[in-house]
C-alpha cells in the first residue's frame, strides 16, 4: 500500500518541476547591426552585435563561438565604450540574399536573412541635369518593395548636396527629381549616386533583430546646367 503514496509523491514532484520550467522566463537573443555594399569597390562591410535576456531592458552582451556572414567567419572585436561586435569586410560579388548564421551553446543554429536586389545600372534620360527642369533617370533595381527605399544624392562641383528619398512600394524604375530640389547647385561637372536601403527585421520566440542594409551605387559624372 505504501507504493501508492510514493507513486503519487513522485508524480507530484514531476508536475511541480515541469511547472517551474514552464514559468522560467525564456531567453531571447537581440541582434542589431548593418550590411553595406559599395558597388564601385565591390566591397562588403557588415557588423552585428548580440544581447540576450528575458527582455531587451534586462539583456546583457552575448557572444558566440562562431558567427558567419555569407558563409564567411566574422571577426570578434572588443571596441572601447561599445563592447563586443562581430565584423566582416571583404571584396566579393553582391548576392541578392544576405545571410548571418550563428550557433548558441545548446547547438541551436540561428539564421538571419533578407533579400534585396542591387542597383546594377543608372541612366539619365536627358543629357545631363537641368536646374530648370529637374532630373529624369531610370535605374535597374529601382522597383521597390514596401520595406525598401532609395536615396538619390546629387553633388555639384563644390560637393554641395541635394537629395531625395523614394520609399516603396513602387511600380517603376523611373525616378524624377524636381528642379526645386537642385536649384541651388552650381553649374558644372557634378556627381550623382543612389543608396538603396532595406530593413532586416525579425521577431520570433527566440530572436529579435533590427538591422539595415545599404547598397551604394557607383558615382555617375553629370553636367549640371540651367
Write a concise synopsis of the structure shown.
This protein is mainly beta. It contains 2 helices and 18 strands.
Can you walk through the features of this model?
By secondary structure, the chain is mainly beta. The protein folds into 2 domains: 28-115, Immunoglobulin-like; 121-197 and 211-225, Immunoglobulin-like (Sandwich). It contains 2 helices and 18 strands. The longest helix is centred in the N-terminal third of the chain and has 21 residues, at 3-23.
CA radius of gyration: 25 Å
Number of helices: 2
CATH class of the largest domain: Mainly Beta
The end-to-end span amounts to 103 Å
The best one-word shape is: elongated
CATH topology name of the largest domain:
Immunoglobulin-like
Quaternary: single chain
Give the low-confidence spans: 18-22
In total, the number of domains comes to 2
The overall average pLDDT, rounded, is: 86
In percent terms, what proportion of residues is strand?
A: over 45%
How is this fold's topology laid out?
Layout: H1 3-23, E1 28-38, E2 43-53, E3 60-61, E4 67-69, E5 72-73, E6 75-79, E7 83-91, E8 97-103, E9 109-115, E10 121-124, E11 129-130, E12 135-140, E13 148-155, E14 161-167, E15 174-177, H2 179-182, E16 188-203, E17 207-216, E18 220-225
Parallel strand pairs: 1-17, 11-18
Antiparallel strand pairs: 1-2, 2-3, 2-7, 4-5, 4-8, 6-7, 8-9, 10-12, 12-15, 13-14, 13-16, 16-17, 16-18
Amino acid at each position: 500500500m505504501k507504493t501508492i503514496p510514493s507513486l503519487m509523491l513522485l508524480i507530484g514532484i514531476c508536475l511541480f518541476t515541469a511547472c517551474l520550467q514552464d514559468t522560467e522566463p525564456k531567453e531571447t537573443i537581440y541582434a542589431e547591426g548593418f550590411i553595406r555594399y559599395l558597388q564601385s569597390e565591390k566591397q562588403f562591410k557588415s557588423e552585428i552585435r548580440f544581447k540576450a535576456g528575458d527582455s531587451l531592458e534586462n539583456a546583457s552582451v552575448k557572444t558566440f563561438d562562431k558567427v558567419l556572414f555569407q558563409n564567411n567567419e566574422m571577426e570578434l572585436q572588443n571596441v572601447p565604450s561599445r563592447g563586443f561586435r562581430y565584423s566582416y569586410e571583404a571584396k566579393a560579388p553582391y548576392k541578392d540574399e544576405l545571410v548571418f548564421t550563428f550557433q548558441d551553446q545548446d547547438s541551436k543554429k540561428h539564421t538571419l536573412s533578407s533579400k534585396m536586389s542591387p542597383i546594377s545600372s543608372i541612366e539619365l534620360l536627358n543629357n545631363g541635369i537641368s536646374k530648370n527642369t529637374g532630373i529624369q533617370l531610370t535605374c535597374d533595381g529601382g522597383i521597390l518593395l514596401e520595406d525598401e527605399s532609395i536615396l538619390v544624392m546629387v553633388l555639384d562641383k563644390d560637393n554641395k548636396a541635394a537629395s531625395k528619398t523614394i520609399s516603396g512600394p513602387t511600380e517603376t524604375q523611373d525616378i524624377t527629381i524636381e528642379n526645386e530640389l537642385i536649384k541651388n547647385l552650381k553649374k558644372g561637372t557634378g556627381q550623382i549616386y543612389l543608396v538603396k536601403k532595406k530593413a532586416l527585421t525579425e521577431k520570433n520566440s527566440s530572436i529579435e533583430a533590427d538591422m539595415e542594409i545599404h547598397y551604394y551605387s557607383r558615382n555617375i559624372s553629370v553636367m549640371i546646367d540651367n
